[in-house]
């Protein structure tokens, strides 16, 4: 069975150096000295894929992304990162495809870079990590990015990012447990994902999907909590004044695609499959932050799916969405 994973990550030595020098966001790569070598080594990536039966990866920078650099650096840094990515994937186009990093806090420049990345570099869309220095993407200033994605008919992958220190202090710091546990609670265990779920909800209720009906967004980690609340949101938001011609779940099921990001768990698969259908499911490992190794093939092969659903989840939806 063909396997395509779509939330897999890379970095470059130049970007890591620039990130460490200028970023106000704390280093987002655990075990940097070890992981950095994996992120930047495309030969090791292909060896890993060969060993564990992965036919193709769609790769992106969602760790030390140039997106989070100070504004004076982000345009040139994103261009350089995208140029390097395009060169790498073009040399291995049968095994790799790429998503662009964008200078999101300069939305007009981000829209131009998305167009260049797709039309000139051959990348398949873009990735946006977290909020933008605490700004959610439903702010009208960011609309040019979504308008360009809709115009180009390419997806945007909405990935978690490091939350603001103020959020962490209010929501996750506690006298009852250690600062280290608070950091994990505010990060990969819970907080990143909850914020990104809020991000998606806000985008939908802002009317963005009504304005751009062909906009395609991708959400990892089984949808960052949102799929289990689709009916609740659809029922309650109209009481609060939501004035859209369709329900919340209508837009979510039409415009959003969901991946596991290495969370190979049967209950979540069955719940998201029930809500979204296999034609809105794609596979992902979150390599190299997570390396599931033999479980990459084992989970999808043994999952309780029909043959058609399994093929869609494993590769069919990704091929259609990313035009692979």
Automatic annotation (TrEMBL):
Residues 43-324 form the Amidohydrolase-related domain. GO terms for biological process: secondary metabolic process. It comes from Pediococcus damnosus. InterPro entries: ACMSD, Amidohydro-rel, Metal_Hydrolase. This is 2-amino-3-carboxymuconate-6-semialdehyde decarboxylase. One of its GO terms (molecular function) is aminocarboxymuconate-semialdehyde decarboxylase activity. The keyword Lyase applies. Gene3D superfamilies: Metal-dependent hydrolases. It is an enzyme of class 4 (lyase). The keyword NAD does not apply. Its EC number is 4.1.1.45. Keywords: Lyase.
């Amino acid at each position: 069975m063909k396997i395509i994973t779509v939330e897999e990550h890379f970095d470059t030595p130049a970007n890591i150096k620039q990130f460490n020098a200028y970023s106000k966001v704390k280093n987002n790569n655990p075990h940097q000295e070890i992981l950095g070598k994996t992120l930047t080594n495309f030969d090791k990536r292909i060896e890993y894929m060969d060993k564990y039966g992965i036919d193709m990866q769609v790769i992106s920078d969602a760790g030390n992304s140039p997106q989070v650099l100070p504004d004076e650096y982000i345009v040139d840094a994103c261009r350089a990162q995208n140029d390097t990515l395009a060169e790498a994937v073009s040399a291995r186009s049968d095994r790799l495809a790429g998503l662009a990093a964008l200078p999101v806090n300069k939305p007009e420049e981000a829209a131009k870079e998305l167009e260049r990345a797709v039309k000139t570099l051959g990348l398949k869309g873009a990735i946006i990590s977290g909020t933008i220095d605490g700004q959610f993407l439903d702010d009208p200033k960011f609309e040019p990015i979504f308008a360009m994605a809709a115009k180009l008919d390419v997806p945007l992958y909405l990935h978690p990012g490091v939350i603001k220190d103020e959020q962490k202090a209010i929501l996750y710091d506690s006298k009852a447990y250690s600062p280290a546990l608070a950091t994990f609670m505010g990060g990969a265990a819970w907080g990143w994902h909850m914020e990104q779920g809020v991000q998606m909800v806000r985008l939908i209720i802002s009317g963005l999907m009504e304005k751009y009906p062909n906009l395609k967004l991708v959400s990892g980690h089984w949808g960052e909590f949102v799929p289990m609340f689709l009916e609740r949101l659809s029922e309650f938001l109209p009481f609060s004044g939501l004035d859209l011609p369709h329900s919340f779940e209508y837009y979510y099921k039409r415009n959003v695609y969901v991946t596991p990001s290495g969370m190979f768990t049967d209950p979540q698969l069955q719940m998201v499959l029930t809500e979204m259908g296999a034609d809105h499911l794609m596979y992902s490992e979150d390599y190299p932050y997570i390396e599931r190794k033999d479980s990459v093939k084992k989970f999808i092969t043994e999952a309780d799916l029909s043959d058609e659903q399994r093929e869609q989840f494993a590769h069919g939806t990704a091929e259609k969405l990313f035009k692979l």
